[in-house]
Amino acid sequence: MDIPSKYEPQKVENHWYDYWLQHNYFHSKPDDREPYTVVIPPPNVTGVLHMGHMLNNTIQDVLIRRARLMGKNACWVPGMDHASIATEAKVVAKLKEEGIAKSDLSREEFLKQAWDWKHKYGGVILEQLKKLGCSCDWERTAFTMDDDMSASVIKVFVDLFQKGLIYRGYRMVHWDPQAKTTLSDEEVIYEEKQGLLYYLSYPIAESKETVTIATTRPETILGDTAICINPKDERYAHLKGKKAVVPIAGRIIPIIEDHYVDIEFGTGCLKVTPAHDTNDKTLGEKHNLEIIDIFNDDASLNSYGLHYEGKDRFEVRKEIAKELEAGGFLVKTEPYINKVGTSERTKAVIEPRLSDQWFLKMEQLAQPALKAVLETQEVRLFPKKFENTYRHWMENIRDWNISRQLWWGQQIPAYYYGDGQNDFVVAETPEKALALANEALDGRGTKDRPLTLDDLKQDEDVLDTWFSSWLWPISVFNGILEPDNDEVKYYYPTNDLVTGPDIIFFWVARMIISGYEYRGERPFENVYFTGLVRDKQRRKMSKQLGNSPDALELIRSYGADGVRVGLLLSSAAGNDLMFDEDLCQQGKNFANKIWNGFRLLKGWEVADIPQPEASKLGIAWYGAKFQQALGEIENHFAKYRISDALMTIYKLVWDDYSSWLLEIIKPVYQQPIDRTSYEAVIALFEQNLKLLHPFMPFLTEEVWQHITERTPEEALIIAQWPKREAVDEKLIKGFEHASEVVSGIRTIRKEKNLPIKEALELSVLNAEKIGMDWDTVIAKLTHLSNISYVEAAAEGALSFRVKSNEYFIPISGVVNVEAEIKKINEELSYTKGFLQSVQKKLSNERFVNNAPQQVVALEKKKAADAEAKIATLEKSLANLE
Q1: Is the residue at 514 inside a domain?
Q2: Residue 799 domain-assigned?
């Protein structure tokens, strides 16, 4: 088989990916092997491949490919999330471009448009993952709105409702005015923003007196229904029982008393707007205050906004401030940094809003999941530091707002049949709902005719997208609808979950909760949290900043393997990755190094000749070194130090194999290599390829198939992971000493400009009592004609030390002795002068007593280093003279 002169990933990658698909290597079916299961964190159906996906999915592919090599039944389930908010926004935007408003369509017409969009654009990211080399079981690709997945979600909703864990409540929620839907607590990101604190003057009714109140949101005065003071605040005791007038609105509101008011904050007076603040709502309920909602669902003002009706809240804020100032109500403004809640999806500033929503009680459900991570360790988090984050959220868990005011998603299976808010039933199908509704009416004795399906009205809302994906490890194996099916019993619980720490609450914790609720066991054994991918300036990569490279362009430039290596070399678990394209170049260079080393091997002529002793020893050493590295690699994998595992392989292949072993066994120019050494090195090279395959699948399969003709059953992707054997520490220590000797000789050759073709002699003062086993390797790597062991230092020679041993290279006829003596004397003179200046500084008591401790320690080290160098130079000089 001809071997191309250079590695060309663009030609190789498509070929081998098609080959793997053709032979169904990615597909898994239950059998008698140990299963190894990973479920992909389903990317949004709207998504395209970005650097975070690249990192996350490369790690998953490394784990799944290694499991496959270890003989496990590896199953990596891919899929997509329907992403209610993001997808609906995309479809609405597309319709707008066509001159169609969502409100112009019926729900069915809109959903047809949404499905058309999904079929056209959805799944792009999964195709892109193939370019990265991801070995997912594509036959198992799932979508959170597939029929069986949706049926699972509805079944779980009904079950939780029947258990009394789901309820409908009129509560203050987080409202996203851009998506026009409520959000859960976890979907709100609080950011510090610079704003203003407005001091407003409220007239006291039937009086010339005023009271000043500070607010960050002057537009909300139009919804004020009270002013609250602390009953212990003597400043306002005279206002007890009086009323105030809301500026602009002219509405008369009561002045109430409550210990909730902080006397020290602001002016000690609080405006109460029950419709637009959680704490105000609590006050409103306690004091039976009127509730006035001034906003439409897009955060423009409604009719309570008076002449501001229809205007955006932020526009009104500017205008109302001017009107308040003109009317003498604005006392002053001050700069104020405020924590503002923003939508995790749309980035819009959220509004607190009173609304009827569906909630899931979480406290009881969370207990088994809390115990599994923090007590029994049935689920382990890597890095362990995330346990504290998990603990904090789970111990302070709040009820989950699971309803969304959207059309794209699973519609809530609640059916209203009467006039009241409580006239509803919950059922998996309209037919079951009808039976329940008729039964309910019978029970109250108000039935005058049986209800029909036309009498039922299904709740308009859909379920939060996370209410689908929290079932993901179960539902991808149909474990909700068919809890005893063979697949879920075989593949569940899964093994490893790889995800980002930013969704530890949204997804990870909730999956653990649902696992214990619906399977009675953990959904996965280990959770590996990747860091965030940042640029060199430590900024999070994003489209807005324009600092995120095109993932596919990177693959085109550096090859998929180069990009995978580049990402992983600097991505320690849980720590952010400072991405630099140079890392991908480093990965590409590594691929070329492996390819060129392979071409070198295949370029040698092989003959049936005796094996040189140096080659035999070098091969034995590398076998021991390989086993040592294999132990380290497996330890790294066990601790989810994927980056460290790759670095160990990188050093093994680049340094030990390419730089040392190939040089040791390399035949003399234009001479053949012995067959024994050649076959042994090829076998070791194949072992290297197995270790490398999870990280660099395309290159390794290409080289593997070039080594010899292989059947599909012999492909690298399904080869056997190397077996652990005892490590010969004596060989490793022997080589470590020999490599230091080689480095010493090479340094002298380089410094004295002695060409490698010129044979040298070496004499050894063997204080360490080192054996002669490695002499053949040392001689070959440094071109020595002779190595002798002596009792005394050689004269007229250059020397170096390795531990207690001293090595001498005679220089007569090799080096200009006079020039060398002159050079050493010059260096000796300079070093003595340097030592003298340092010693002078150290003899100065003021310096020693006043300088920082580390500065004094550094000067002492400089003195010690100079003394050691002087001793070496004087010894070299004595040998030459």
Answers
A1: yes
A2: no
Amino acid identity, residue 69? L
Domain that holds residue 207: 181-352
In whole angstroms, what is the distance from residue 704 CA to residue 692 CA? 11
- Rounded CA-CA distance 722/37 in Å is 21
Dig out the tokens for 515 from the structure: 């696992």
**Nearest 5°: CA angle at 42, between 37 and 43?**
145
Helix H, strand E, coil C: the string for 517-586 is HHCCCCCEEEEEECCCEECCCCCECCCCCCCCCCHHHHHHHHCHHHHHHHHHCCCCCCCCEECCHHHHHH
Mean pLDDT (whole number) for 619-639: 97
Nearest to 271 by CA among 225, 313, 311: 225
What is the rounded distance in angstroms from the CA atom of residue 102 to the CA atom of residue 344? 23
Provide the CA 811 distance to its chain's centre, in angstroms: 58
Please, are residues 782 and 757 in contact by the beta-carbon 8 Å criterion? no
Task: Indicate the number of domains in the chain.
Answer: 5
Q: Which of 46-50, 123-127, 780-784 has the highest mean pLDDT?
A: 780-784
Residues 590 and 708 in one domain: yes
Least confident residue range of 115-119, 696-700, 847-851: 847-851
Q: Please indicate, yes or no, whether residues 488 and 452 belong to a single structural domain of this protein.
A: no
DSSP state of 144: T
Peptide bond into 383 cis (omega under 30): yes
What's the pTM?
A: 0.84
Lookup: tokens for 119: 């079929």
Together in a domain, 150 and 196? no
Say if residue 851 is in the same domain as residue 718.
Answer: no
Q: Are residues 225 and 348 in the same domain?
A: yes
